Amino acid sequence: MSKLLKIIVSIGVPVLFTMVIPAIDLGVNNGRLVEWFGKLLIMLAGNGSNPFIAVVSLMIGAGIVAGLAYLLVRRAPVKE
């Protein structure tokens, strides 16, 4: 991958998720996708009533990220 393409991807993907998708959602679905995502985050945080739900959610998320990181490190070439 060329340096220019890496720069385009590193700038374009965050812009896509933070600006383009919410703008399209607002125009097409009246903001239902963003509203659903907000409700999902509140549910995963335990609705402010039970912090145990937030702890379990974060532990599951950390396990998934650790598993993905392990798979990436396992395939990385060894340089000597």
How would you portray this structure in words?
The chain has 80 residues and is an all-alpha fold. The protein has one domain. The chain has three helices and no strands.
Provide a concise account of the structure shown.
This protein has 80 residues and is mainly alpha-helical. The protein has helices spanning 3-29, 32-44, 51-75. The longest helix has 27 residues, at 3-29.
DSSP E strands, number: 0
Encode the helix/strand succession as letters: HHH
The unreliable regions are none
Overall geometry? flat
Biggest pleated sheet: none
Labels describing this entry:
single chain, 80 residues, 3 helices
Helix and strand arrangement:
Elements: H1 3-29, H2 32-44, H3 51-75
